[in-house]
Amino acid sequence: MSDPQVTLFSDSKYRGSQSTLSIGRYATGFGISNDALSSIKIPDGLKVTLCEHGNFEGRRCTLIRDTPHLKGVNDTTSSIIVERLTTPTVAAPDWMQYCRRWGPRITYKSSDVKGSIKSSLGGIPYADKAVDWIYGAIPEEAKEENGPTGPWMKGAWTNDE
Ligand SMILES: [Ca+2]
């Protein structure tokens, strides 16, 4: 069997300059420019870890299949690990490809949220108290974008590169 390789592309949809990598650790360079990686082809059985900084530092994103748009981690990769998947590929669920916390992220200010609840209540008596009560009832997780969301789901990145 030939050595499986991943292919990196500087543009989305497998365009731009490209580079192929075998299994290994690429601490400082991987054939295309630093902070340029935009799409990647990954054959079955390989796992690719993209790292935000050189020497595998910074935040990481793990991918196990072809990814035409890196979205939240677009143009941020500075080092890469290519390794064999140790679990059967067929068992790998979609949520493997999540990359929350790296890339753009929206945080809502509690004062803004309260303000919009207040305006939707239209100035009823005791609105301030009602808003505090309603806001207090919202679970913490809902007040911030904290959950894992795959790059496919993320609409924040619209450009190709
Ligand atoms: Ca790019």
TrEMBL record:
InterPro entries: G_crystallin-like, Vps62. This is Uncharacterized protein. It holds the Pfam family Vps62. It comes from the Bacteria.
